[in-house]
Structure formats: C-alpha cells, structure tokens
Amino acid sequence: MNHYSYEQWLQYVKNEVDENVRDKYDSHLYSCDQCLEVYLDAVAQLENELPMLGDQDEFTNLIMEKVVQPQRVPFYHSTLFHYAVAAAMTILFISTGVFQSITSYTDLVHTPTLQEEAPTLTDGIINKTFAWMDSLELNNKEDNK
Ligand SMILES: [Zn+2]
Fold this sequence. Notes:
Layout: H1 6-13, H2 19-31, H3 33-47, H4 56-68, H5 79-95, H6 103-109, H7 112-143
Zinc ion (ZN) binds next to helix 3.
C-alpha cells in the first residue's frame, strides 16, 4: 500500500488536491490507520489556523450554518468538515477507551477547565456532526431518485 505524506494530507485537509485525486485520499483514509493518524495531525495543525475554536458555541453554530445553507461548494469538501470529522473521531476514540492506556496523553488534556467543559462540547459536536451526516445521506438519496 502506498501511503501519503504529512504534506499531502495537509493539502488534502486544505482542499488543495484535485477532485479526482481526492477520491483516492478519501478511500485510503478509511482503510489505513497509519495515514488516519497523519491526517489527524494535519487537521490538528489546521486547527491552530482556525480562529473560531476558542468559542465552542460559535464553532457549533458555524457547523450548523454550513449544514443548513445551500452550498456552492458541498460542505463535505470544505475545510471545516475535516475538523468536525477529526473532532468526532478523536472523541469517539476517547470515549471507547482507545486513548485511556496512554497515560501521558490523558495527563496532558486533563487541565481542570478542559475536564469541566469537555462533556458539553464533545456531546454537542458529536450530535450535530452525526445529525448532519444523516441529513446529508437523506438528501443524497433524494437527489438520486
Ligand atoms: Zn496509508
């Protein structure tokens, strides 16, 4: 299997790859744990460049806006989508205990503030992300009729 480099994933996250190439990235990502990790790193890098992350409500509202508004560019291909997916995935990993064996990781994130606010933030993002994914699927099915 040919893996992609960190730079390539960064381009993917920033929507700097061609549409036809993009499909290969998509399918590779779903079948390769190694590249998924690199992809998440690239998303984390991008996260630093996104201004809205300091405000949880603003972030979820922004996602909801993207979801309800008809898009010239599909939300699926927007940069924010990657962040939402990565956030949801990371949270899923945490909640399923994948990260629990990594003590240094939990020590790192367990600042008092994060601990208190995390459940609301994560629940909100997960619910809204998956609610959106469901609605997208429905829309696609209707479009294809
Ligand atoms: Zn790979």
